Amino acid sequence: IAENALQALHDEDYDRPFNTQDLNADTLIFTGGRQGRSLDGDWNFCVDLLDTGLRQKWFAMTPARPEDRIEPWDYDPHAGETVPVPSCWQMLKEKWYFFEGSGWYTRALTVAPLGAGRRRFLRIGAAQYDCKVFVNGRFLGNHYGGSTPFCVELTDALAEGENHLTLCVNNARTRDRVPMRNTDWFNYGGIYREVTLYETPTSVVRDLFVRLEGGQVVASVTVDGPADTARVEIPGLGASVDIPLEDGRGTARLDARPDLWSPATPHLYDVTCTAGGDRVSDRVGFRTIERRGTEIVLNGRPIFLRGISVHEDDAATGKCTSEADIRRRFAHARDLGCNFLRLAHYPHHERAAEIADEMGFLLWEEIPVYWAIDFANPATLRDATNQLTELVRRDRNRASVVIWSIGNENPDTDARLSFMRKLAETARAEDPTRLVAAACLVNHRKLRIEDRLAAHIDVIGINEYYGWYDEDFDELGVIGENSAPDRPVVISETGADGDHEAGPESGLFSLAYQAEVYEKQIATLRGLDYVKGMSPWILYDFRVERRQNVFQRGWNRKGLIAADKTTRKPAFDILAAHYAERAAEED
Ligand code: GCB
Predict the structure, then answer these.
(1) N or C end of the chain: which has fewer CB within 10 A?
(2) How confident is the model at residue 587 (pLDDT cuts 50, 70, 90)?
(3) Do residues 336 and 345 touch, judged by C-beta distance below 8 A?
(4) Is 399 helix (H, G, I), strand (E, B) or coil?
(5) Atom of ligand 1 nearest to the CA of 558
(6) CA of residue 443 to ligand 1 center, whole Å
(7) Distance between CA atoms of 23 and 32, rounded to whole angstroms?
(8) Who's near 297: CB < 8 A, 6+ residues apart?
(9) 486 alpha carbon – ligand 1 mean position (Å)
(10) DSSP strand pairing (459-463 vs 489-493)
(11) Is this complex's ipTM strictly greater than 0.95?
């Protein structure tokens, strides 16, 4: 490779062959109930600011003793430093804290011979932001999008015995991606969710979608391979159906009367699907969610969403989330009296929705179409559409998820309207059983809720910071009176920073001021009957590069609880008291 490699060092198109988007929603396999082999653990690792690895083809280097190598090398992917997978590299070494660029992960993978008619798939839970996959020096595909899972088939790529798996993960922020270059959360990098190898028969269930639709239990299956029927069973309901497959796809109704899932009664049923010797399973709840005028209606009853917004962020592990962390988050939400969480601003770990299903929380899930995305760029739309499709396919069996949100605080331009309308169409085509929302801004000039996107979504999310970024608090009341939306509004964000360590006694950044903003917000919003929920910003303080004043010091301090995830600020109790009142009114 010496000559090629030298040429590539001077080639500025070095990365073009790798920027395919061939690992996407259509290459996913359904993994519920499968026994996979975990590839978590130590991987060889190197940061690579100049992309020397792609230019010099580090992925093609086979293991060798240094004395046996015949060419000089800038990095040996099979030797040296290791890091744990999953993890975020910023949290491992101080000198990697602000690193943006490629990180190379390599590990050996020894496999037994694959039996006749068997297939293998690698699944990566999430890698931030894009990930190029190589096996034994061969490029197998690339994935865009830092928070959704992706799969790559390894059936032909792995040989019996020792193989080498190399993943090049790049977290550089670029103009055409989703999100773009500017966000209010930390730009973590790395493989920060689980990596698993699955073995399947020739027929593989790629997708299973089970839901209550038109009053009936309906199952849709997608199978890749020769199977011509799939069988779906719900033993707890004594229901089963054989679904004929055409071009690998089929849909059928099951004769079943499930007890409905709700936050008070989170009933779940085991569902299995078999096709051509492949078998997957899931635990599914059945409920309806609709909008009727300005109401949000769950199982036929209007509800108020008592919520809180959360990021996936931890002082010690960054974006790498444990089951314990998710459970603590829900326990705090329960203490607040919530029935609802907004999982902002990107898809969270899939365990979150599974646990919400079990515990009885309603969820808003979201893709990072955040602030100034490059709305006119077709590549950006392709990326956003794929991330949305991957999220919906991953979580559409979760009764807890009631809202797909397609964006946050995007300016009301023609390009954005056309972009977001297409995303709303994608969400509805992938899943006609849930509500579509976006977090919008009020029209500050006209002092009213007015956004052309509102006509294309079911729930108007409003992010407003009266008392904080908008200092004239009285304007919120004016907006309330001036607005007459024809559909439900959820206050998807409001809040104020409160620094529990170094904040002043009063005024901006004090805990007292944060509490006062909550009191005033609650008093004003209570009078607006079209407001059907709220998810203030935010449960915990979270890390972010752009906030460096003496009170924030690298953190957004709008949490009701500090970054230690223990210290509660006074605003916590104010919101909890309000939600207790709301809950009592509903009973
Ligand atoms: C917003 C954004 C959120 C920020 C928050 C803030 O409107 O949606 O991502 O973190 O405001 O604290 O400024």
Answers:
(1) C
(2) confident
(3) no
(4) coil
(5) 12
(6) 17
(7) 19
(8) 288, 289, 290, 291, 303
(9) 26
(10) parallel
(11) yes
Distance CA 371, CA 260 (A): 37
Asked whether the beta carbons of 415 and 380 are under 8 A apart, the reply is no
- Asked whether residue 8 carries a pLDDT value surpassing 90, the answer given is no
**CB under 8 A, 24+ apart: contacts of 12-16:** 14/51, 14/54, 14/55, 15/51, 15/54
Spell out the residues 6+ positions from residue 57 whose beta carbon is closer than 8 angstroms to its own. Answer: 1, 4, 5, 8, 137
Looking from the CA of residue 556, the nearest atom of ligand 1 is 12
pLDDT for 268 equals 98
- 296 within 8 A of 408, measured Cβ to Cβ: no
Please say whether the beta carbons of 104 and 168 come within 8 A. Answer: yes
What separation in angstroms does the CA of 229 have from each of 113, 241, 276, 572? 29, 10, 8, 53
Cβ within 8 Å of residue 247, ≥6 positions away: none
What distance in angstroms lies between residue 316's CA and the mean position of ligand 1's atoms? 22
Ligand 1 atom at shortest distance from the alpha carbon of 469: 13
What residues pair up with 246 in beta bridges, in sequence order?
249
CA 465 / ligand 1 centre spacing (Å): 9
Task: Say which residue the tokens 């209570």 belong to.
Answer: 526
Extended strands (E) in 484-568: 489-493, 531-534, 542-543, 555-556
Which amino acid is present at 582?
R
Ligand 1 neighbours by CB, cut-off 6 Å: 184, 345, 408-409, 463, 493, 537, 556, 558
Q: Residue 344 is which amino acid?
A: A
Q: Work out whether strand 161-170 and strand 130-135 pair parallel, antiparallel, or are unpaired.
A: antiparallel
Q: Which pLDDT band holds residue 10 (cuts at 50, 70, 90)? A: confident
Evaluate if residue 404 carries a pLDDT over 90: yes
Contact 28, 143 (CB under 8 A): no
CA separation for the pair 385, 422 (Å, rounded): 8
Of 310, 366, 556, 560, the residue with max ligand 1 atoms within 8 A of its CB, to mutate for a pocket test, comes to 556
